[in-house]
Amino acid sequence: MTTTHASPLVSSSNVNGTDVYSNTGTHIGSIDHLMIDKESGKVAYAVMGFGGFLGLGEEHYPVPWQKLNYDTQKSGFVTDITEEQVKGAPDRHDSWFDDREWERRTHEHYGVPMYWI
Fold this sequence. Notes:
- With 117 residues, the protein is of the alpha+beta class.
- The protein has helices spanning 12-15, 83-87, 100-110; strands at residues 19-22, 27-36, 43-50, 59-64, 69-71, 76-79.
């Protein structure tokens, strides 16, 4: 008998487009792309698309990777973030990914440890 195991690794190309659900099972968005720390190799953020129809009007927000947990039953990620948390997150500017102070405030906002520490 052959037993198959889910690999602990996944290609980033397979993560892009993956659905994200609330703790109650409601579909809340999907992952547009990942932001990876160049030095540590850790995934820092999943930039998620929320809202819209066929990509029109969709808004993208970076969410700390630690806020997502993969659920094999859903073939997607589950999170406890709320719409209010996403909308209340620190304002982004064009170079948010180069602003450690913005990152610190964002991780504090979502209540997760900073990935670089």
